[in-house]
């Protein structure tokens, strides 16, 4: 470490005493931690411009005061003196200062503190049965291929590309790969000016809502839907409407009249896994034109969809420029890389690029260049083919195991995905409590109440994912989960029945009922009627 010591040769205090006083103050104030190694006498003398004997004298005094200790052939280290604690010693009484309340200065309209997100333990990967959603198995990551692409990206020829400030631009190589190799598979014909690289879909959604939002603006989203999208929309719009989901996806009706922006996951609805029907897609595009709103399409799980002919994106069917498309490399490559892309009309992309530039200029070029090489060399396509085969096998194993182990629960999961939504039809299951009990046994499942505008609607539902768990652990993990459920039932009622009707418990059922829910408009609660499919 390097010590900041100021030597004043005009003072009457000796140089070694100045060093002693300043080092001891750093120790007392906790700025030098216990056990930390101090600079050598020679190095410190050179840094502050004094003789080595002066530093030796200062260190000897600090040793005599039992503040530091010398270890043979190792150096000098900070130690505790008898009965003292760094940071607590020699604290002179100071006048009481009232800390500033920074939150009083915050724009509360930009906060969404009351909205929960789906809980996932930080160490989920260390658990024996990680049924988490939308993550990868570390064994699936192509380490050797990614390392090769990183080496190629860091060659001397490209040094100027990734080491300099690209202002607001993106890597032309990655834009080209996205436009020529990725978007066409979703039916989207793109030119360079219509694509923006983002730090994942969530970053793209924030840019969009920042540009569209305002106190007088209204957004709409699926209910149930992505909790982080609800936080983003709530922070940027005056009000958010919650539009129900049934067996065909987002319900399209007059409740969309008067909105400015609609967020939707048509390919794989989050969290019900429902795919929006062709008729509903057309109805949504027609409504956007009729009511003059725009659509944000989060093409969730599109890259690993293993159906033989997945439906085209909503953007591919849009002939009026109403759809803003969000995609990412997260589900196929790695969520931690935080690489995504936004595709829309060039005028909107230009505005989004300018807004992104005010925040972060551009995602790191070295990351963009590495990803571009990964796609260009065919590694990405090869990885997706392998993942699709693997995900299909995992889905089939889990689908059969759920029928065997948990027949009393309703299960929703459309073929082509990696997630399952489980519902207790008796409405007695408290999913939050079950998730905690399961985690204690090494099973990670995810309660989905945060996905619902009324938490009670999702209190008896949870989801499992099979994208990150080994095939050999799916059946044993679900069997253990079944044993846990049986134990909790045997002990008596395992929750008080929550109030409120349920939202989609089956992808093939569309019976509806109404339930009053609370919607926040400009921070004020009001009652509204939400139609729920059960």
Write up this protein.
The protein has three domains: 1-95, Arc Repressor Mutant, subunit A (Orthogonal Bundle), CATH 1.10.10; 124-136 and 382-514, Alpha-Beta Complex (Aspartate Aminotransferase, domain 1); 138-380 and 519-533, 3-Layer(aba) Sandwich (Aspartate Aminotransferase, domain 2), CATH 3.40.640.10. The protein has helices at residues 15-28, 41-48, 52-64, 143-153, 159-163, 172-182, 201-212, 227-236, 278-291, 314-317, 346-359, 365-376, 379-405, 431-440, 455-458, 471-490; strands at 68-71, 75-78, 129-130, 195-198, 214-223, 237-246, 249-250, 261-264, 294-298, 323-328, 340-343, 410-412, 419-423, 443-444, 446-447, 461-465, 512-521, 524-533. The protein is globular and about 90 Å long. By secondary structure, it is an alpha/beta fold. The chain is built from 16 helices and 18 strands. The protein is 35% helix and 17% strand.
């Amino acid at each position: 470490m390097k010590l900041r010591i100021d030597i004043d040769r005009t003072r009457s205090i000796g140089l070694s005493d100045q060093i002693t006083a300043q080092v001891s103050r750093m120790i007392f104030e906790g700025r030098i931690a216990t056990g930390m190694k101090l600079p050598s006498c020679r190095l410190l003398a050179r840094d502050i411009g004094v003789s080595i004997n002066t530093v030796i004298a200062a260190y000897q005094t600090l040793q005599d005061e039992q503040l530091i200790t010398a270890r043979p052939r190792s150096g000098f280290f900070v130690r505790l003196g008898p009965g003292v604690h760094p940071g607590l010693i020699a604290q002179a009484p100071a006048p009481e200062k009232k800390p500033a309340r920074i939150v009083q200065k915050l724009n509360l309209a930009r906060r969404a503190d009351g909205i929960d997100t789906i809980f996932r333990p930080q160490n989920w990967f260390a658990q024996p049965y990680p049924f988490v959603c939308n993550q990868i198995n570390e064994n699936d990551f192509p380490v050797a291929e990614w390392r090769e692409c990183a080496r190629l990206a860091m060659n001397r020829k490209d040094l100027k590309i990734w080491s300099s400030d690209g202002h607001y631009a993106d890597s032309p190589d990655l834009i080209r790969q996205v436009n020529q190799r990725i978007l066409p598979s979703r039916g989207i014909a793109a030119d360079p000016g219509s694509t923006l690289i983002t730090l994942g879909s969530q970053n793209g959604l924030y840019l969009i809502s920042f540009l569209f939002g305002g106190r007088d603006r209204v957004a709409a989203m699926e209910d149930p839907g992505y909790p982080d999208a609800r936080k983003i929309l709530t922070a940027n719009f005056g009000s958010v409407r919650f539009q129900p989901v049934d067996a065909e996806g987002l319900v399209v009706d007059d409740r969309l009249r008067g909105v400015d922006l609609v967020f939707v996951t048509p390919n794989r609805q989050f969290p019900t896994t429902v795919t929006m029907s062709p008729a509903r897609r057309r109805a949504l595009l027609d409504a956007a034109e009729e009511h003059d709103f725009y659509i944000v399409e989060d093409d969730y799980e599109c890259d690993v969809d293993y159906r033989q002919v997945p439906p085209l994106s909503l953007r591919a069917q849009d002939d009026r420029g109403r759809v803003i498309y969000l995609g990412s490399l997260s589900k196929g490559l790695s969520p931690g890389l935080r690489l995504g892309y936004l595709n829309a009309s060039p005028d909107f992309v230009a505005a989004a690029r300018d807004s992104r530039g005010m925040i972060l200029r551009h995602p790191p070029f070295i990351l963009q260049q590495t990803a571009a090489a990964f796609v260009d060399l065919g590694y990405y396509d090869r990885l997706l083919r392998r993942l699709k085969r693997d995900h299909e096998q995992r889905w089939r194993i889990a689908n059969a195991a759920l029928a065997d182990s948990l027949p009393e629960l309703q299960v929703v999961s459309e073929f082509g995905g990696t997630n399952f939504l489980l519902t207790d039809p008796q409405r007695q299951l408290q999913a939050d409590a079950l998730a905690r009990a399961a985690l204690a046994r090494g099973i990670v499942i995810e309660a989905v109440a945060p996905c619902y505008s009324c938490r009670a609607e999702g209190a008896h539902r949870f989801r499992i994912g099979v994208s990150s768990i080994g095939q050999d652990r799916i059946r044993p993990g679900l069997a253990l989960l079944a044993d846990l459920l049986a134990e909790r039932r045997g002990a008596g009622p395992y929750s008080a029945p929550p109030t409120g009707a349920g939202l989609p418990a089956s992808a093939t059922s569309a019976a509806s009922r109404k339930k009053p829910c609370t919607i926040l408009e400009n921070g004020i609660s009001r009652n509204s009627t939400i139609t729920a499919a059960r």
